[in-house]
């Protein structure tokens, strides 16, 4: 993807709260990933609950279930979007979720919601999250394609009656449906005859508690098989200053073959903080 495409997609995200990126990844690879996950879809029970759905299947730990899932998580264009959207409010971004979803025939439409509401606190000064829905099968108006409500990232609705008409994210495998954590959206009803399958990959501010607990989904014995770029996204790295440490050090040390029995704490500060503390020490205060 070009810089011009990145700029155009960021403009659309800012204007509408979402953007659909066609051909973000090769369609053949997405279809191969769908085949890799077929047994997991078949073996997963239906969800329980009016939010998760009653004829919808969901499962996580995708990076252990199919190696091709890494292509989605590490897609360069999508990572650049996430960094641009979230990077002003954190020192590093993190993987918030990588979850497969199959909406089966007969499932009703999902309640319209904004994913940032999973976290408390004041909203509106920055984004908390960028989600990306990757269709594994074609998304259509009849099989439950994601419904996106334009402008709700700017003007949050107070009631369902305040919602604008939704945009149906109809697209083919290989496309990436990107939407902000502040954008109201929801899965559509499936009135077709086959399931609608997709994968949601989300990136959030590095100092938030992620939706999927990465250290349970990908403990050190599993994560040490991944690249450094991927383990950083999973949280095996500190978010300066000193956040997410293990015994006062970077948790990436847990990915080594051996871990020292005793560790001494080591500062992990931003450059401005390190300079301020160094000046304080020089002055002998």
Give a short synopsis of this structure.
The chain has 285 residues and is α+β, with helices and mostly antiparallel strands.
CATH uppermost class: Mainly Beta
String of helices and strands: HEHHEHHHEEEEEEEHHHH
CATH topology: Jelly Rolls
Strands across the major sheet, in which order? Answer: 1-7-4-9-3-2
- Quick one: overall form? globular
Low-pLDDT sequence parts:
none
Q: Could you give the distance between the termini?
A: 52 Å
Number of β-strand runs: 9
**Percent in helix:** 25-40%
Mean pLDDT: 96
The domain count comes to 1
Task: Give the biggest sheet.
Answer: 6 strands, antiparallel
Radius of gyration, in Å, reads 20 Å
Structural class computed from helices and strand pairing: alpha+beta
Strand-residue proportion: 15-25%
What is the count of helical runs? 10
Oligomer: single chain
CATH superfamily: q2cbj1_9rhob like domain
What would you say the CATH architecture is?
Answer: Sandwich
If you had to describe this structure to a student in words, what would you say it looks like?
27% of the residues lie in helices and 16% in strands. By secondary structure, the protein is an alpha+beta fold. The protein has one domain: q2cbj1_9rhob like domain (Jelly Rolls, Sandwich). The chain has a six-stranded antiparallel sheet. A three-stranded antiparallel sheet has the order 6-5-8, with no helix packed on it. 37% of the residues are buried.
List the helices and strands and how they pair.
Elements: H1 3-16, E1 18-21, H2 27-36, H3 38-43, E2 56-59, H4 62-65, H5 69-73, H6 76-86, E3 93-103, E4 129-135, E5 147-148, E6 167-168, E7 176-180, E8 185-186, E9 196-205, H7 214-217, H8 220-223, H9 228-233, H10 271-282
Antiparallel strand pairs: 1-7, 2-3, 3-9, 4-7, 4-9, 5-6, 5-8
């Amino acid at each position: 993807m070009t810089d011009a495409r990145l700029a155009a997609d960021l403009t659309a995200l800012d204007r509408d709260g979402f953007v659909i990126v066609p051909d973000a990844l090769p369609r053949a690879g997405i279809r191969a990933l769908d085949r890799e996950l077929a047994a997991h879809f078949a073996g997963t029970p239906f969800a329980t609950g009016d939010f998760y759905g009653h004829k919808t299947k969901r499962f996580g730990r995708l990076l252990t279930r199919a190696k091709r899932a890494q292509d989605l998580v590490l897609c360069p264009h999508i990572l650049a979007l996430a960094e641009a959207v979230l990077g002003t409010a954190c020192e590093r971004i993190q993987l918030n979720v990588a979850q497969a979803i199959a909406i089966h025939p007969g499932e009703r439409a999902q309640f319209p919601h904004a994913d940032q509401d999973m976290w408390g606190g004041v909203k509106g000064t920055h984004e908390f999250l960028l989600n990306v829905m990757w269709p594994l099968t074609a998304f259509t108006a009849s099989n439950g394609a994601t419904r996106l409500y334009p402008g709700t990232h700017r003007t949050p609705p107070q009631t369902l009656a305040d919602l604008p008409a939704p945009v149906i994210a109809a697209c083919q495998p290989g496309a990436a449906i990107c939407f902000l954590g502040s954008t109201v959206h929801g899965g559509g009803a499936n009135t077709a005859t086959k399931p609608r399958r997709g994968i949601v990959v989300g990136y959030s501010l590095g100092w938030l508690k992620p939706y999927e607990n990465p250290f349970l989904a990908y403990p050190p014995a599993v994560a040490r098989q991944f690249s450094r770029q991927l383990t950083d996204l999973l949280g095996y790295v500190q978010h300066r200053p000193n956040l997410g440490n293990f015994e006062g050090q970077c948790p990436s040390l847990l990915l080594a073959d051996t871990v020292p029995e005793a560790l001494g704490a080591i500062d992990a500060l931003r450059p401005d903080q390190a300079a301020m503390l160094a000046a304080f020490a020089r002055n002998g205060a």
